[in-house]
Design brief:
This protein is α/β, with parallel strands linked by helices and 422 residues long. It has a six-stranded mixed sheet, with helices on both faces. The protein has a five-stranded mixed sheet with strand order 9-13-12-10-11, sandwiched between helices. It has 18 helices and 13 strands. α4 links the parallel β3 and β4. It catalyses: tRNA(Tyr) + L-tyrosine + ATP = L-tyrosyl-tRNA(Tyr) + AMP + diphosphate + H(+). It is found in: Cytoplasm. Belongs to the class-I aminoacyl-tRNA synthetase family. TyrS type 1 subfamily.
């Protein structure tokens, strides 16, 4: 495809929230491959699924022949981006930031090709230049190009200023200039022509373009991807149970997969366009058939499998599929001990037990029943299973009930489960 079509196709997929200097960017990409960057501040030990969209967008540019640069904000994370935050972040220590930088860098390496012959991705850290800069140089060489009047009228800043209970510190207020300087340095030393980020980064990206124009007399470009908000008003990837992380130790692949299985039906085909590399024409065809034989459930599964494979790899996806078969298709034949450990982590409720008198007691202890009488009635009504097998009378647990000598799955109906961990 022509490079002009890359921007067109990003728009067709709903991947462009803002774009600056689109016509000149399209012309530039048509003539040459470009370098572009996206920044990630290490403010935790893992990225979350809110970071997926810019990462996948970088991957789309790399596939098209362009060179993606990841900028880790080793310096800027000491301050924290105030953009649309309700209050100031808690400051992080250098030690934590260094540890988190290492972990996040490994995560990012899964998405981009760092060993390509032509356009290998590059990983940088803005500590490289900020550690060498003093405050007087910063104020003289960067600060003088920015009007306070303009800065305080940016939406992200204004939202905090009008709140007398919070306000915004000078430290946070300066973040916008730090990110602008990142873009300036990357343009000067690495010929970066484009910065991308989430829609909440538009003010920061615009400042970078402004600084480069004032200091270098060059035109550069900015592009943001949508900032996804769920129907309850929370940011995409944040649930009542917490953030959905990309690190399998913080959010298990099974819970990650289930997040996508439980998205609203209205988002399925939109998310297929945003997060997968399936052709838009194929996605539109799928959407036209969504009401036939409940096809939307199959498409939701298709989405969940694609993203789980992208983030967690083929082996973890296979584990998720075994767990899903075990819980919902009652197929116990392929389950592995590691799968049950994953279930215990954050898949379903569990209790640790040494000894249980009988099934009725187990149902009460796991809150699948409120009383022994209710448990007895559930068993009689054929709604209780042990390891996917229906139980029709009260039961005393034995060695055969303990999968791998450690786990017993109790189920009430099709959707209510609890794990006994012996």
């Amino acid at each position: 495809m022509s490079e002009f079509n890359l921007i067109t196709r990003l728009r067709d997929r709903g991947l462009i929230s803002h774009i600056a200097n689109e016509e000149s960017l399209s012309k530039l990409m048509k003539k040459n491959s470009i370098s572009l960057y996206c920044g990630f501040d290490p403010t935790d030990e893992s990225l979350h699924i809110g970071h997926l969209l810019p990462l996948i967008t970088l991957k789309r540019f790399q596939i098209a022949g362009h060179t993606p640069i990841i900028l880790i904000g080793g310096a800027t994370s000491l301050i924290g981006d105030p953009s649309f935050k309700e209050k100031e972040r808690i400051f992080n220590t250098n030690n934590n930031i260094n540890k988190w930088t290492e972990k996040i860098s490994k995560q990012i390496s899964q998405f981009l090709d760092f060993n390509s012959n032509k356009n290998s991705a590059l990983l940088l850290n803005n500590n490289m230049w900020f550690n060498k800069m003093n405050i007087l140089s910063f104020l003289r060489d960067v600060g003088k190009y920015f009007s306070i009047n303009t800065m305080i009228n940016r939406a992200a800043v204004k939202k905090r200023i009008i709140r007398p209970d919070q306000g915004i510190s000078f430290t946070e207020f300066s973040y916008n200039l730090l990110q602008a300087y990142d873009f300036f340095i990357l343009n000067k030393k690495y010929q970066v022509d484009l910065q991308i980020g989430g829609a909440d980064q538009w003010g920061n990206i615009s400042s970078g373009m402004h600084l480069i124009h004032r200091r270098s007399k060059k035109e550069v470009h900015g592009l943001t991807v949508p900032l996804l908000i769920q129907s309850n008003g929370t940011k995409f990837g944040k649930t009542e149970l917490g953030t959905i992380w990309l690190d399998a130790n913080k959010t298990s692949p099974y819970k990650f997969y289930q997040f996508w299985m439980n998205i609203e039906d209205s988002n399925v085909y939109y998310f297929l366009k945003l997060f997968t590399f399936i052709k838009v024409s194929e996605i539109n065809e799928r959407e036209q058939k969504k009401h036939i034989n409940n096809q939307i459930i199959n498409d939701k599964s298709f989405l969940a499998k694609n993203i789980t494979r992208l983030v967690h790899g083929k082996e973890n996806l296979l584990a998720v599929e075994r767990i899903t078969e075990f819980l919902f298709l009652k197929n116990i034949n392929h389950i592995q001990e590691s799968d049950l450990k994953q279930l215990k982590k954050d898949g379903i409720p569990f209790i640790n037990v040494d000894h249980i008198k009988d099934l009725q007691e187990a149902l009460v202890l796991t809150s699948l029943a409120q009383s022994r009488t209710q448990a007895k009635n559930m068993i009689i009504s054929n709604s209780i299973s042990i390891n996917t097998q229906k139980i029709r009378k009260n039961h005393i647990f034995n060695r055969q009930d303990k999968l791998f000598g450690k786990f017993t799955l109790l189920s009430r109906g099709k959707k209510n489960h609890s794990l006994l961990c012996w």
